[in-house]
Amino acid sequence: MPNLKSAERRLRKSERRRKRNRHYKSMMKTFIKKVKNATTKEEAEAALKKVYSILDKLVVKGIIHKNRASSYKSKLAQFVNNFPTTQQAQA
């Protein structure tokens, strides 16, 4: 339990920020899973576009570092580019 009034305020602020950050990180992970679990390349590309937007917003808000967002983007783009087409999947 905080002893000072300012420490009580900091505790309340940090709890609100923690909840907000958890929400955004959970949302980010959910959309990344949507890209990885896509059944068609078109579906994966649409989900990738949404993930790019979300990652950029999280960088601006300071929730994740810009290099981490860049790393996610790179890995997911590589995944989508190597997505098997229907002819390759049937072979």
UniProtKB/TrEMBL annotation:
It holds the Pfam family Ribosomal_S20p. One of its GO terms (molecular function) is structural constituent of ribosome. Keywords: Ribonucleoprotein, Ribosomal protein, RNA-binding, rRNA-binding. GO terms for cellular component: cytosol; small ribosomal subunit. Residues 10-22 have a biased composition (Basic residues). GO terms for biological process: translation. Residues 1-22 are annotated as: Disordered. SUPFAM superfamilies: Ribosomal protein S20. InterPro entries: Ribosomal_bS20 (IPR002583), Ribosomal_bS20_sf (IPR036510). Belongs to the bacterial ribosomal protein bS20 family. Binds directly to 16S ribosomal RNA. HAMAP family: Ribosomal_bS20. This is Small ribosomal subunit protein bS20. It comes from Candidatus Chryseopegocella kryptomonas.
